[in-house]
Amino acid sequence: MAYRSHILLCSGTGCVSCGAFTLKETLKTELQKRNLQDEIQVVTTGCQGFCAEGPIMIVQPDGIFYCQVKPSDVPTIVEEHFIKGRPVKKLLYTGAAKATPIPALKDIPFFAKQQLVVLRNRGLVDPDKIEDYIAVDGYSALSKALTEMKPEAIIAEIKRSGLRGRGGGGFPAGIKWETCRKAYLQRNVEPVVICNADEGDPGAYMDRSIIESDPHAVLEGMAIAAYAIGAKEGFIYIRHEYPLARQRLLNAIEQAKEYGLLGENILNTNFSFNIEIVQGAGAFVCGESTALMASLEGEVGEPRAKYIHTVEYGYKNRPSNLNNVETYANVPLIILRGSDWFASMGTGDPRENPWNGSSGTKVFSLVGKVNNTGLIEVPMGISLREIIFDIGGGIPKGKKFKAVQTGGPSGGCLPESKLDMPVDFDSLTEAGSMMGSGGMIVMDEETCMVDVARYFISFLTEESCGKCTPCREGLRTMLDILNRICEGKGKEEDIAFLEEMGEVMQDCCLCALGTSAPNPVLSTIEYFKNEYLEHIKNHKCPGGVCKELITYVIDKNKCDGCHACTKVCSSNAIKGEAKKLHSIDTTKCIKCGACIEVCTKDAIYKE
Amino acid sequence: MADNTIKIKINGFEVEAFDRQPLIEVAEKIGVKIPTLCHNPIIEPYGVCRICTVEVRHRNRVRMVTACNYPVTNGIEVFTDSERVIRNRKLIIEWLLGRCGNVKVLNDLAEQYGITEPRFGRGTDDCILCGLCVRMCQDVVKANVLGFFERGPKRYVSTSFDQTSDLCITCGACASVCPTGCIKIDKLEEGTYKEMPMGPVTPIHIDFMQAVPKKAVIDKESCINFKTGGCKVCVDVCEAEAIDHSMEAKEKEVDVGTIILSTGFKLQNGEELKEYGYGKYPNILSSLDFEVLNNANGPTGGKIFTQDGRVPKSIGIVHCVGSRDKKYHEYCSRVCCMYALKFAHLIKEKIHDCEVYNFYIDMRCFGKGYEEFYNRLLKEGVNFVRGKVAEITDAALDKSEQGKLILRAEDTLIGTVRRIPVDMVVLCLAIEAQEDAKEVSHFFSCSVGRDGFFIEKHPKLAPVSTAADGIFIAGVAQGPKDIPDTVAQAGAAASAVLSLIQQKEVEAEVVTASIDEEICSGCQICVGLCPYTAITYNKDKNISELNEALCKGCGTCVAACPSGAAQQKNFRDNQIFAEIKGILAV
Q: B197, B231, B237: which is closest to B216 by C-alpha?
């Protein structure tokens, strides 16, 4: 039966936690009440990416975008949109500036500048239905690979496309596959294909979203890789904290097996491939290849020296091809549309040398002090400014931009002067940060860069496995010094000392977690040395964050004595008679910031 | 140049190496010492202390690698003490000092690199987390007792749930590789005295200094390989490749003409004498236990200690424990008096102020120079109490007896019952025949007496021979005796054997029995009767067969044979009858 209209309801984790499932039920009941259930279909889709505006729904075929929909809005939507045929204005996207509402999704700036390759099916297919995926050409790349291409040809195609590892390292996937196949043929030991879904960076959720919205793309990519390398066995190492993604993968594997797209003799060829899902136990370091494989084997997830590569001797000493979720998700389209198409996106021409430039797109999770937080996919080479100001809609409350942190906890913080830099693997590394798996945290003027460095170093100290000396002791001592600086007890030589420790860690740590761990400190020292000096010399925190260095002050000219602040102050630090100037007792003040939030006159500020 | 030989440069010198050989090995070969704290050649490299980080250059690429596990490849240039390497190394040492400020190996390194005061201060931990002990326990010993716990700066080495582990085989391998000496092995409260000081000091040992052949053996009880299947470090280091853990005891058949039975004796089990508390109280030793403890090659190097490590201030030596006692053995064990005197003398020599009490029934100092030795001891201040000890207890009656072992005995010379508190007791346990002496005697056609010792052919005229030809006896297997007597008897047995061998042939008895195959019904009556085991039963033919070489012609079988199949040669029935007939005809 043909429906006249479809409601595409986002069911990514963001929207689900805002009540998307309740909304779905309410919608269905309401449609039934109006006897519209045969005319309008409600479809749950993967993450739309615009998480800041959730729960999100898109009405097709008009492409009308509704955001922040509550169950109480449902009767209005059904009444207005489906019966009377006019969009509900109050639920349309307006943007931070509260300007004219934009009804169509394609016109919203957040979506307009994105280029969807990996996320091509987001908001389009139901991730729990393989039929949906097949309907949008799903698994035709696998069929093409199995029936028309030799393994060598597939590897050549991937190499030519310039696809580089999306997990952070940026190693050309084609070269990895080629080495793995070579190791397999030389040693005649059956290789394995592993997908790294142990996404642990704070604020990053690209891989989770890709799996949640399009699990079959990952499975198809892995199957193609397995065929090209010669593997019959595959693993997806997914972190324990992603239950929805894991459930969708399990479901997808089940369906693919039913359709003969996984398992024995896929598509009636000689190729057999099975995928097993393994859950991580929550250690950040298990995202590192050798630690991940140790964990897969049932050992303690600790890295080992990589002088012998895992691609040759990895999981149980078998040749092991480890790629990230996003890398695999790119593969089907490259096979289907050709390497020329993929290489045409992004920077450089990788067709002769995959190290030359960064082709394709990259998914970022844009979070922090930016209006449109969410998941975005942009072509490589786009500038940071475009991402933050055009797609991200700039900084909230008109504050000034200070820095953007890329590459997860081991990445670096880039200042305003780097905003016009193209976003690709090599430029980011050159600037002292890294691509990482695609976390992007925007910071405004009210951020303290020393505190940011301290936060990331503290995260890494917690997550360091402690196996090698420089990482274990280096992070501990760095954290001590940063804590001291934040408390105003820093010494001038601390900066040089931090730099020295950072360089030694880069030289001597056992795994990439350790060698990249000093990046937050080194990049903030490079670009924001003044803030360090302010803390050390003048005992001031320019961002107004470090509690020991700030005091709360009431502006004499603005305070009208409304008593709002005295009511919320939990430590009774604010005194003053009604309608008269209040004052803060700094000995009692715990600097919680509650007073600033409630003051209607903006009379309280940090000094 | 062999196929896998390559050339690399270390600090400018060209060196030959095997492809993918660990860098630290290659450097060591040319005398370049790279410091490391987590590397031990018998354990797989781990690469965690990072002190051995060196600079490797190859085709414009500069890498910092750890020498302990970096596999060298052709053409690389290594710099083990470039400015960058030294800077890194110094900071790592400083970092480690920040954790373990008082560890000697670190302070030695710090001195070598001119670090006087680390910028992070000095920590008080002892463990540098090199992981040698953990890898030793997991990868080499395979006991899997030690492991790392927590992560990051909180990481530490321990056993599961920080509890004493049942899996620990107390091999001590962890402590032996610990570079800082922070692993201590606690003596458990019970059992250590019995197991530790009495067994060999190391699993691989030479039994005793006079051992023949003087070869090292592996103690199965304490060898790690027999417990966990791991270790085998000795196999790796033995250049002669002489060690094989899979070797088993084998049965071998040897054809010989004569045999000397010298199967020795066993000491009576002290636990049979409940009143003496052997096995119940820790400081009661058998004479053999004391001999081991007192031996210069023994576990304490010959020093006398109580179980809790104290030097005993008083020791009681009890004679005739189980000997000259109708409840156990009526005979005298013969050697106890003299070795008890030897113990007393040695104790006095090692611990001058130790009071030694000998409890005896009679002093039997019968040999050459023995009586003189006894008299010397009397002068040395050893106490002799004539009387049999009734019991040994730890139940104190007053303060002076607390924490001591009290020997209660009647002193028959002064006619009073005495309680003597001591720190240690040595029991002169009875010498007993081996448990299987009877079976052995059957096997060799000789016999044992009521006391279980082998019986000689004649107590005066043939003291080393037995009833069976070619079988001789020597030593305590024949009866309790001391070393000189044993050596003399063994010499006699050996010469008896040699004279037989020298003759090259044996004179057999002319008059032997014979069994007629045709008549024998296979009833086997003769088999059981033959005192020389000369008759065996042939199952296939269902007849008894006689070995003429063993037969002494005693005629027992002839007399017993119901069918008349067994006949004495030259004395057959018809011959006798013919003889009678002849006499009667005269």
A: B237
